[in-house]
Specification:
Number of strands: 7
Strand order of the largest sheet: 3-2-1-4-5-7-6
Radius of gyration: 19 Å
Largest sheet: 7 strands, mixed
Mean pLDDT: 87
Number of helices: 8
Strand content: 5-15%
Helix content: 25-40%
Shape: globular
Structural class: alpha/beta
Low-confidence stretches: 1-10
Length: 279
Amino acid sequence: MINASIQNMGDNLMKRNIVLTVGAHPADFTNAAGTLANHIRNGDKVFLAILTHGINSHFRNTDFRAYLTKETPSLSDIFAKLKMEKRRETKEAATVLGIEESNIRFLDYDDGPLLVEKKIIYDLAVYIREVRPNMIILHLPTENDHEDHQSAGDIGTRAIKAAANYIPQCNLPNYAVKNVFFMMPNYINKYRSFGHVLQAPDVVINIEDTIDLKREACTKFVSQKYTSEWAKKIWDCVSGIVGIMHGFEYGEAFISMNPVVSKLLPEMITRTIYDWEDD
């Protein structure tokens, strides 16, 4: 089902949007890469806010022997080099999708764990006022894939409220974001393990035309060992099941924060798995 907190998908394909995606770690925005590429092709502006440097979360995947050189003789030197490398990978992945390098903000907080604190909330809120997006994509605050994703979703919702109300020592005008979408977690089986019931998505985006860009963007994160084989396998599975359940080949699923507000029931663009029979 296509949710109409964005009111009308047809109108949205005609207007120009400003989309801000907030990720806990450098590679997290690729979870919505197909959707972001669609928006770029629509002529929209896409911005990224990367909350942490992301080193700790992928510490076990790092081959430190490859970084131990005369120029980086200590662990702190290696961390500094990794931080710059992840920034470079982020910029390269964003370029694949068509996102301008100047539209990326690195907040550079520590991850593993990412803490929900006032400073990071206000820093993100300031960026929201700077960018003034009419759409924001966040992690789901109840996600079980990664604890930092939960924190990032919490930070994002709090920053949205702060941007609309009060930020200490900020002279930028208040700004209220109307449309907020949470990325559906990739590993839904974890919810069953924890006994949680996951809400079904109410926004599903067809990314058949941009799945190749999504895969390619992922492969830029070499430091996390995201190979082309891995990218094809993970997104064929995750985006493939989302797509096929809604009548097309590849999709990305979201949960909208705000309900549809209308005097009449909105006409939805709907497809199901059974629509394959008509294609």
